[in-house]
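Because discrete structure vocabularies remain unfamiliar, we reproduce here a specimen of the format, pairing a chain with its fold in token form:
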Amino acid sequence: MTGARISARGLLASEWTKLWSVRSLWLTLAAAFALTIGLCAYMIVDGEMLGSEEAQDIPFGWTAIYPVGMLVLVVFGVLGVTGEYSSGSIRTTMVAAPRRTGVLLAKAAVATGVAAVLGVCTSVLLHGLLQLAGTVPAARGVSLFDPDMFWGVLGGTLVLPYGALLGIVLGSLVRNAAAAICLYFGVFQMGPQILPAFLPDSLAGVLDYMPLAALDVLRAGGLTSEPYGAGTAAFVAAAWIGVLGGASWWLLRSRDV
């Protein structure tokens, strides 16, 4: 009985159940994709922005809205962790999995997996709408798997599960929803806009290696190699998760719940 409770399958099943039974979680998840689909659909059908002179040569321009959904998915990830701390149910979870590492991995796997699947479905749906609307000359008749379309859509889609995973990591790091959300907006969202005013020119380039800057390179789908290429961008984005996730894991193992 005890072995079943702490198995990997049991942990994943537990996190899956929590996702759909805790109202704040599935409502936040639904809001993220409803907002993303709604705004992208409006942009596609309206066609004015995507058909402008600046954007008419970019077939995947509608994915520019995806970072909006990412913001909500960061909140979703944060709530997936901090909700248990605020309710005290984290103690029961840790009794079932005393090594704790599996709990963090299960939360990350379920949140990221669900966001990834819904992200793929969203991109397929919106690409279909794009073809029906025909408002973007560069995208007319272009398959989703055409390289000119695929890499940009893939980069945009990856932003969504990345947001959920980043939220899980930040929530695990500080254990408080308000603090984790403020940390995200203060450091990752607003930091690159504010910090240049306080940094010497010799250090300003460091901000190019923030996670959102790396995600912007991936979303460009190869249209730009500034300030670095897609491979470096993927490494930078993964490195942030690795460092923050490692810190979260260490604190989870060493702190009381």
